[in-house]
Amino acid sequence: MPHHGFKTGPACTHLKEQELHFHLYMHHYSSGSNANATTAVHSKHHNSFGQIAVNDWPIFDGPGPCAKTVARGQGLYVHAAQADHACQGFVPGVGYTSFTIKFNHESGFPGSTLYVMGDAVTAHESAVVGGTGEFTMAGGIVKKSQKETNCSGWIVELHIHARYTPMKHGNAWSL
């Protein structure tokens, strides 16, 4: 029998799962006047093990200069590999990243979020492990590819495919 502070009941079966497919572009700049990622914890190791960076990446609806900012990718990156690498600093594919995609009014989903976790910023895939607003209970995948690189950063193409259950006021979800 559950504790008196907890409630259980039958699952609500009238909720309908939705599917989303987004094709977006995340701009990651670690230096220069447009820097949107910075090291918050420096490593004492020669291979940057333990180094942590925080980010606030703008996410656009297209690759070109006329693209609209539709979200921001806010979170962190941890250099989590102890193996030596040819270059110092953050090396794509050797760390862990966790960030929230926060959608703005331009996206059509203002205030909604997707939570993303995975191996490094530019690794090929990360998991969508949750969401809020329109994207409640989201789960899926983000396929990433590095599209453009310059001296201050790179642009990452995002293909987001997820399922979610939109929650409206007045349904079975209450405490």
Automatic annotation (TrEMBL):
Domain of life where this protein originates: Eukaryota
Keyword flag Cell inner membrane: no
Against Pfam families, the record matches this protein to: Dirigent
List keywords of the entry alphabetically: Apoplast, Secreted
What GO cellular component entries does it have?
apoplast
The listed locations are:
Secreted, Extracellular space, Apoplast
Sorted alphabetically, which InterPro entries does this protein's record hold?
A: Allene_oxi_cyc_Dirigent, Dirigent
Q: Name one GO biological process term.
A: phenylpropanoid biosynthetic process
Q: What binding partners and quaternary form does the record give?
A: Homodimer.
Record function comment: Dirigent proteins impart stereoselectivity on the phenoxy radical-coupling reaction, yielding optically active lignans from two molecules of coniferyl alcohol in the biosynthesis of lignans, flavonolignans, and alkaloids and thus plays a central role in plant secondary metabolism.
Family stated for the protein in its record: Belongs to the plant dirigent protein family.
The identity of this protein, by name, is Dirigent protein
Gene source species: Brachypodium distachyon
